[in-house]
Structure formats: structure tokens, C-alpha cells
Amino acid sequence: MSKSINPLSLTRVCSSSQARLSANSFLAGFLSLSLAVAFLSDAAAQQSEFSPYSRFGFGLVNQVNTPVATGLAGMQTGLANSYQFSPGNPASATFLTQTTLQGSGVISNLTMRQGEGNEASATYGAAGPMGIVVKRKNGKNALILGASSYSNSGYAITRTNDLEGIGVVEESYNGEGGLSNANVGWAHVFRSTTFVSAGESDSIRVSKRSLHLGVQTQYLFGQVSRASTLDIVDPTFLDHRARVTAQHRSISTDIGAILDQLLFARYNGNREFRNSMALRLGGVFTPESGLSSDITRLDETTQTLGGIPINLDTTYFKSDPAFPGRMPRSINGAISLHYDRADGMRWAAGFEYSSTAWSNVAEDMSPELLSEGVRWLDEEAIRFGFQFNLGNAEQRHPTWGKASYRFGLASGNQPFEVDGVPISYKLASAGATIPLVGSRSLSRIHFGMEFGTRSGPTDGVDENIYRINLGVSLMPFFKNQWLVPRLYD
């Protein structure tokens, strides 16, 4: 006669045999690479991470940036430019000189290690943020339309244990999906001018201060699912499978502002520009917003036949349609200095801080989104970025001499902690922007790369991440300017 056990009481059975599968050991085992680790070989839609840390909450948050932001360690506010806008900061749209269409693609490599000799790696690709800003050349208003990834989840991990009294037990954990943002917004810039001296008896009118304001509505949507299977090789025991599927929807508002203040501008007696420096302050605020989630959890008793788990009985089922949750408020602040010289050399350096108050909405979230031993944690990050252009325009290479180069450093954490330990990361980045040769326009090609480490509990996994981000910004040819009235019929 076959003997079966209740999967919900498995921890009690293992405890009597001194092989307790508690919540802590479950998490440690889930993150463990000391046994078999298998990654999915193909990237699914919305995915840019194959990490076990992507199992919690909505997955790993904000892992894909524009190529320019990638080269600046993820900065979105302090170093806005005239050739690529940031989806996370609507105020950056009015820095563009004219209508701009942009898109990018990302290739990532993830290497995971635990202890010595336990290593696995995967290479995968994903689409980066894409969008269009409709703006008249040198105009003051900009219309923003775009879409970008918000979070990503993807993993496939197995492990095997030999438990006394039960035998060989195979556990597998799988997850996929992610959330995306679609946004529409509007930005406007206010400018004021002043006069600066040019020699002893002349002066020139220059832009003294500009205030860039933007607001956008973001629609967050997507699905994240995860499954865990307990397969007891001994056929006298029944197996267990648990699946959680969550579809999320939320509408929020981003409010961005960037103040560009001229510190000094110098001209010689021939009214020729010498150099200038400006201070830039910026920030983005996103208030709390509602979250609607359709969450389903299904626990089944199964029997594995020929390698295929067959459902025998449903041990637990829960469905929460339109579960009311909350998305947290977030703030982002940045400060930067910008220096320009007459020969075309320019540099800019900035510091940025961001915080998202996930702990404030933890009680409004469904417990199905996190596992036992995992809880929401405020997400914080600090970033430093530097970019420059070479001088001596006459002596520069027509392509590389006109490029913008950048690098950055960042440190932060994901919005959850496991057994009281946050999932933290550190990264270094570099990138460049070059003209699109032959286009006879201001279109550009952008390149960004970053290398970072991510780690969690002391008995968890250390991850090394290498990412390459390649994109393009397309602007109209100077004889085909959009939104400019024709002078003839």
C-alpha cells in the first residue's frame, strides 16, 4: 500500500529525522549553487535578469537604463543632455534640441558563485527603454511618449537532498515575467537672460537661468509568476507543487524639475567666448499610488510519472482578484557642475541620490508576493557620474574626436531583505556617444557598459554582472525639420 505525506507537514517529518526544511533553510537552499543550477537559455519578454534574487516581490527593480544612463551608473537627473532623454525624469525632455526617437538593446552576462567550485553563468539579451519626444527645434515645450522595463524576474534552479526516512528529494524553483511602464507626459522650460562683459566697453546677452519642468503619467503593468516543486524519488511518497501568479496594474505620476544656473561666462574683447561654468540642481518626485493585483496561489499534490508531474489533488487554492495594494513614493535628487571651454572641451560631474519608501506600503501588500523570511525594505542608491568632450576641434578625429565619454559609480540595494540582510549591489560603468556618420543630422549612437556585484545573505550567492547597452537617438535631417512651417506651398 502506498504511503503518502502531507506536503504542508513535510517540515515536521524532516524535523523528526534531523533534516528540518525550515523557512531559513528553504531560502538558503533556494539561493544555493552548491548543487545543480540551471538557467533558461533564451530571454523571454521583459526579462533582463536570470538571478534567484529576482524571485521576490516584483522581481529585480530598475535593471535596464538608456545607454547614456548606463554609462553614468544609472543617473537620470543630474547630467541631462541634448541628445537622449531619460524615461524616469520628464524634465529631461526639454534639454533635447528637437524631436527625438530613441531605442536600445542590452546584452548581459551573469556569473553566480557560492563557496569554492560552485559557479554558473548565463548570457541573455533584452530590449532597453524606447520612446519619442515631439519637440519643435529650440522650442520650450515637449510631448513625451515611451515605454520601459520596471522590473524583471527569471530563474530556473534545482537542488537535491538525501533526507533520512524519506530518501532523495529533488526541489526545483522556476519563475518568469516582469513589469513594464508605459508613459505619456509634457515638459516645459522657462529661461531668463543676463548681460556679461566682453572687454572693457561691451557686453553680450547670455542665458542666465533655465528651469525645466516635466510631468508624466505612468501605467505600470505586467505579470510575475513563480513555481516550486518537491519531487520525492521514492514512489511511495506523493510530491508537491506550488504556483503563484500575480498580475499587477498601477497608475502613477512623476514630477520632475531641473534648475540650470549660470555661475560665470567669460568673453574676450572681440566678443569671443572663452569659458563658462554652470550649476545644475534636479529632482523627481513620485507620490504613493494605488496598485491592483490579481493574485492566484495553487498548491497541488502530484505524482511524477515519466518525469512529468501529474496533478492528483488540490491541497490549497486562493484567489485574490483586484487585490488593493499601494506603490511607494520615491524621490530622486541630484547636483552637478558643467564646464565649457572655447575650443570645444567640456566636462560635467554629478552626484545623485534616490530613495523609494517600500516599508511604508508593506502592510498594504499581499503576503503572497514575498516568501517567509523576506520583507520589504526601503530602496536606496547613490550614484556619481562624470562625462567629457575633447577640445581642439580642428585636430580631432571627425568621429571619435566629437564623441562624449562618460563613467560612473553606484551603490544601492533592492527593495527587500532576506533574513534581515538586504540584497545590495555595487557597480562601475563607462560609455560613449558618437555622431551617426553620414546622417547629416544630429542623430547619435550611444554605448554604455557596466560591471557590478550583487549579494545577499551570508550563506547566499555572490553575483557578478556585466552588461552592454547599445542604442541610437534619431533626429530629423536639417532639410526636413519637423514642426516647422514651410515658407512656400
Q: What topology does this entry show?
A:
Blueprint: H1 10-16, H2 23-31, E1 60-61, H3 67-71, E2 100-113, E3 119-127, E4 130-134, E5 141-163, E6 167-197, E7 203-232, E8 239-267, E9 273-286, E10 289-305, E11 308-327, E12 330-341, E13 346-356, E14 374-376, E15 379-389, E16 404-418, E17 421-435, E18 444-455, E19 462-474
Spatial order of the strands forming the largest sheet: 2-4-5-6-7-8-9-12-13-15-16-17-18-19
Total count of domains: 1
The top-level CATH class is Mainly Beta
Strand content: over 45%
Number of helices: 3
First-last Cα distance: 91 Å
Apparent shape: elongated
Structural class: mainly beta
Please state the CA-atom Rg, rounded to the nearest Å: 27 Å
Element-level helix/strand string = HHEHEEEEEEEEEEEEEEEEEE
Strand count, sense and closure of the main sheet? 14 strands, antiparallel, barrel
Helix content: under 10%
**What do the pLDDT scores average to?**
83
Assembly state: single chain
Would you kindly provide a written description of the structure presented here, covering whatever features stand out?
It is built from 3 helices and 19 strands. It has a 14-stranded antiparallel beta barrel with strand order 2-4-5-6-7-8-9-12-13-15-16-17-18-19. It has 489 residues and is mainly β. A hairpin with a 5-residue loop joins β8 and β9. It is elongated, with a radius of gyration of 27 Å. The relative contact order is 0.18. The protein has one domain: Porin (Beta Barrel), CATH 2.40.160.
